Amino acid sequence: MKVLFAASECVPFVKTGGLADVVGALPKRLRDLGVDVRVMLPMYSAIEPKWREKMEHVLFFYVNLGWRRQYVGIEKLVYEGITFYFVDNEQYFGRNYIYGYGADEGERFAYFCRAVLESLPLIDFVPDVIHCNDWQTGLIPPMLDIQYRKLEQYKNVKTVFTIHNLKYQGLFQIDDIEEMVSLGELAYTADSLEFYGMCSFIKGGIVFADHITTVSPTYAQEIQTAYYGERLDGLLRARAGSLTGILNGIDTVEYDPETDPSIAVNYTADTFEKKAGDKIALQRQLGLHENVDAPIIAMVTRLNSQKGLDLVERVLAEIMSTGAQMVVLGMGESKYEDLFNWAQWKYAGQLSATFQMNHELSHRIYAGADMYLMPSMFEPCGLSQLISLRYGTLPIVRETGGLRDTVLSYNEYTGDGNGFTFLNYNAHDMLHVIERAVSIYHEKKDVWNMLARRAMQGSYGWDESAKKYLSLYEELIAAKPEKPARKKAAKAEEGEKKPAARKKAAKAEEGEKKPAARKKTAKAEEAPAEAAEKKPATRRAAKPKAEAGEAEKKPARRTRAKKAEPEN
After folding, report:
1. pLDDT at 372
2. Between the N and C ends of the chain, which has fewer C-beta atoms within 10 Å?
3. pTM for the structure as a whole
């Protein structure tokens, strides 16, 4: 079996979020299961020279993108047994950022999708399955179905589309995208790529892919509801039969406290007491008061509202009053950077904030902290809580998405659990759980150590999830060709968007269902006025039966009245 992963980022080459971790780790586990798996990425200028120097130039060619004829270079690198292909184009990827803003992003990733499909026969690797990830690769399934499917090399290629975060959808002007990709007018109807007057890349993946996956079972259910569905819940419900939630894992080799070269002191579940050495080293590095008895609450995260930082802002003073120390690492919205900048001045020696992407420091924080706070508004899967569990740092999370699937709140009566959770998106619910965790840390040290050791012994790798993906690929390859239920999906979406149209359609349908009523009305109109006057009850009964023809009946009655006047 041959599988190609198409993605916009991948560790260790380039990373902005959890997508990179998934694309870096899952292919290695699939390879161990006997799959010939390869990965294709954009060749960003952010990729370090140490990787560029090891790349081999394979070939180059040109693709048409509207009136543009663009260069495509294919570079190749084998890393840890996986072949990586890099799509090289300085105009689109030779920039000082990974993701930008505006219409230009649509052009960049429409080009990438085109380059992926055009390159397959040229690199002599036409896969059985193309595994697309997030909106940046969302045009690959529709391009394949509309423009490539009739070609011999592509006719049996299946597609899987993974939603890592439904909030980011890739919305661009229809005219701009069509000018570049030439999919035809029918591609931008409600049952295809059109989304509230825009072209939606992520909708292209959802509608045209042979199968859709999300990164946790709970998130797969959540996005079929209006609250989490980002206005695509109707479409996702329509495709529920082709939607699967498969939990992400982490690279258990990279994140291993026993061998991690980034941390001060290595330890295992059996030598958990050595973790205190990592705490002291972290406190010293970040300028916190060196106190092994003070619990450290950590957050390694993007600083945005999705991550529940407004809850933290609301009760920050109360959190600090528990005596816990707090460590924050991440970048994002300026209002949250300003908040934590102020907080580390206000609570000097008790709170530290570092605004950067620092991979090495993140390892030291996971090892040195006691608790990991993740109060997300929504969380498709989340990898940070898995990493913290691996390091014996107990998570405090809100029960949503993958957090609900991976963290079980400690039950003091049964002893079950591997962390602490709260359900409602409420600052004081979160504060109560933090206070409970701090209390157990101070007053029930044996319970705390038991929970931490249990957390370290859990299974957080990709082994089970990789088997589920392999089973999914095998089912797709064995299945007969089948068109996605686009019409059904469109009806579900249109039903939510146009209630007025629904009512009009219902009335029209009602009119069609009652031809007998219309015939009866017509006969009544043709009858002489005397007959009409003799049977008033019949005339009154006919009114509710023929609502659709009411407008036609009124002028008919006026005509009869005029004819009847000479007889009187």
Report:
1. 98
2. C
3. 0.82
